[in-house]
Specification:
By secondary structure, the chain is mostly helical. It is built from eleven helices and no strands.
Length: 237
Amino acid sequence: MSDKLYTIPVNEAFDVDCECPVCLMYKNLEEAAIEFTLGPSYMEDDVRMATNKLGFCKRHVKKLYGRQNRLGLALMEMSHFDRVNEELLKAAKKNIKPAGLFSKEKPEALTAFAEKLKNSCYICERVDETFDRYIATIFYLYNTDDAFVKKFKASKGFCLEHFCILYDRAKKEFSASAAESFRNELNNIYFENIRRVREDLQGFVDKFDYKNADKPWGNSRDALIRTILKMNSEEVE
Ligand SMILES: [Zn+2]
Ligand SMILES: [Zn+2]
């Protein structure tokens, strides 16, 4: 199961005209995880146990709140809320009478607890599990499927984060020489498209000069949105 390949969703993402197909894959997984969490499954014991323990990060609790199932979210929040505050109460008390959840040598222990909690998220965890296999599938397809290689080369590149993931991961997935040739290709695609977006961004900035008021937008109208996607892996509207 852990070695599963996802050739269909990976191919589909590379079929879409966008600034980063990997961002698109992530977004699709995120959407599926949100649907799953707020669907009938939130009443299932194993899901309840997991949401109860992990809770949700800032990004995902906002997304969950934006959906229709307020009762489902309220019930999940309620049990997570109780569990976390129970632990916190124990820990806070034990800090007065040392030992317990947090060591007395670490007066910042509650901050560490809060920090840990901030990064703990059922949706993130669910997405990450499959996302890693999606990345492995990209390498598998690149190695075995000429049609995919063609698509890969014709893509508009990647966001910064996903470029770095692909670059580093090549070492694990390929032999040294295959990794080198993959990286050369990846570098070409990434930096070529970075130059393109940079030019579009320049065009966007230039349009604010009154002298260019009549100049056509060309490809610059949405350049800021696409720049943010490249740099932050984030879609803004
Ligand atoms: Zn991306
Ligand atoms: Zn999250």
